[in-house]
Amino acid sequence: MSTPNQTRQWILTNRPTSVPTLSGHSPTFTLQSTPLGPIVSGQILLQTIYFSNDPAQRSWISANVDPVRLYGPSRLPHVREGCQKIPSLEGLNGVGVTQFLGALGFTGLNAWYGIKEVVKAKLEETVVVSGAAGTTGSIVVQIAKHIIGCKRVIGITGGEEKCKRVKDHWGADACVDYKSASFRDDLKKETEDFVEVYFDNVGGEILDMVLLRIKRHGRIAACRAVADYKKVGEERYGIKNWFEIVSNRIEIKGFILLDYLAQADEMTKDFVKALKEGKIKIDEDNETVVEARFDTVPETWLKLFQGENKGKFITKVI
Predict the structure, then answer these.
(1) pLDDT averaged over consecutive 10-residue blocks of the chain (318 residues)?
(2) What integer pLDDT is reported at residue 81 of this predicted model?
(3) What is the rounded CA–CA span in Å between residue 142 and residue 129?
(4) SS (H, E, C) the chain
(5) What is the pLDDT of residue 230?
(6) How far apart are CA 199 and CA 132, in angstroms?
(7) What is the pLDDT of residue 78?
(8) Is the distance from CB of 314 to CB of 284 less than 8 angstroms?
(9) Which of 149, 152, 145, 103 minimizes the C-alpha distance to 126?
(10) What's the sign of the alpha-carbon dihedral 43, 48, 49, 54?
(11) Of 211, 174, 230, 260, which is closest to residue 55 (Cα–Cα)?
(12) Could you tell me the CA-to-CA distances from 214 to 40, 192, 241, 279, 293 in Å, in that order?
């Protein structure tokens, strides 16, 4: 195969204030071709095969974001030079390479650290997980139920099919469909005795509802805020039940995996061990891989916010 002399790039040209646009006078992204010089000693040329599609990427490109407040550090504090031996994946049948962009990557580690270290869920406690059919949420459900052994695990997701998967495939004791007209009543019924822990992937109105179901001294792991990623200003849902945090001494802690990279090796070993023991399932139900031409990559990315994918949403460039 001959070495290419140019590469195509999608450039962020206009930061969006609402839903990103792909055409018109001010498109969010512009496709450009850039010349490639000769490869010299010490350089390698890589071809991108897969793209990871993540809700947080929308907030990174927002026109309203203050760069000082972005959580991505300009320098990673725990990067080490040299080679590193990763845990053996031998015996993990059916695990494809794309899982390293999801369950076996930062997404899975987010789930592991959030439920075990941030809120420290315990055996005798009840846990609620929003976004329970997503990559992070589905792993949180499994860790809470099959590794920690929590008394009860309740998922929240959208649609009957996803709810069925959360219960039958990943082991939640119950799942509440937020798209159902009876969602509020269903949530109240499933949390009749209230809950100690909430792993929050969505924020917004669902967080507001769950605040009413948290026990005194309960804990919330704030992992994501998917409900507001496409919204700005007054479009965003303002929390109305804030006094619940005060009156019930509820602890809410936001976290970013980048803060805990020093512990990533240990977490990865524990995670792989759990996989080999069958306590966590990783298969085609954990991801959606969509084939797309490079010139349709942004269009494919936008499908992430339509909620049609199951688990991690990945683009395979064809």
Answers:
(1) 86 89 91 91 91 85 77 48 52 75 86 94 98 92 97 96 95 97 98 98 96 98 82 76 97 88 82 88 85 95 81 92
(2) 47
(3) 11
(4) CCCCCEEEEEEECCCCCCCCCCCCCCCCEEEEEEECCCCCCCCCCCCCCEEEECCHHHHHCCCCCCHHHCCCCCCCCCCCCCCCCCCCCCCCCCCCHHHHHCCCCHHHHHHHHHHHHHCCCCCCCEEEEECCCCHHHHHHHHHHHHHHCCCEEEEEECCHHHHHHHHHCCCCCEEEECCCCCHHHHHHHHCCCCEEEEEECCCHHHHHHHHCCEEEEEEEEECCCHHHCCCCHHHCCCCCCCHHHHHCCCEEEECCHHHHHHHHHHHHHHHHHHHHCCCCCCCHHHEEEEEECHHHHHHHHHHHHHCCCCCEEEEEEC
(5) 64
(6) 9
(7) 46
(8) no
(9) 152
(10) positive
(11) 230
(12) 59, 10, 12, 27, 46
Packing angle between helix 204-211 and helix 183-190, nearest 10 degrees? 40
Place of tokens 């619940």: 244
In terms of residues, how long is the chain? Answer: 318
